[in-house]
Amino acid sequence: AQAAPDEEEVAPIPDVTGQDDENRDVVEAGAPSVSAPTVTEPTLSSATLPSGGRVFGRTEGPARVVVRATEESWIEVRDAKGTLWASRVLRPGDEFRAPDAPGLTMTTGNAGGVSISLDGRELPSLGEKGQVIREVSLAPSDLERR
Question: Which pLDDT does position 58 carry in this prediction?
Answer without folding.
Answer: 79
